[in-house]
Design a protein that fits this description.
alpha/beta, Rossmann fold
Length: 120
């Protein structure tokens, strides 16, 4: 199973990701914003990052960009989870290094499907 860093400012989304993913045997580290996630990533490596786009202190775009500068995160899969649906946002996320996109509202099957496709 995989170790996953899940980042979202919504407690409900963090809880959903943790319960669903741990229920499938993954190890999940939850963080409330990009700054907390980046601090964690500087000292820990995971198999997958799932991050929200719109968060206080440091948003998802900045987080993805900063993670890609860390040696252990240069090629690591990073999924963006957000309510944003505009194509230019998706393109910008890819440009800064996001691997894929999960649209909110997210449910158990959509989350598990995205993770399974990403970490194979």
């Amino acid at each position: 199973m995989a170790s996953i860093l899940a980042v979202d400012d919504s407690q409900a989304i963090r809880s959903l990701m943790q319960v669903v993913l741990e229920g499938e045997g993954h190890t999940v580290f939850v963080k409330e914003n990009g700054r907390e996630a980046l601090d964690f990533a500087r000292n820990h490596t995971v198999d997958l990052v799932i991050t929200d786009l719109n968060m206080p202190e440091m948003g998802g775009m900045s987080l993805v960009s900063h993670l890609r500068r860390l040696d252990n995160y240069k090629t690591l899969p990073i999924l963006v989870i957000t309510t944003e649906t505009a194509d230019y946002k998706k393109q910008k996320a890819r440009t800064v290094g996001a691997t894929g996109w999960i649209a909110k509202p997210v449910d158990k099957s959509r989350l598990l499907n995205a993770v399974a496709k990403t970490i194979k």
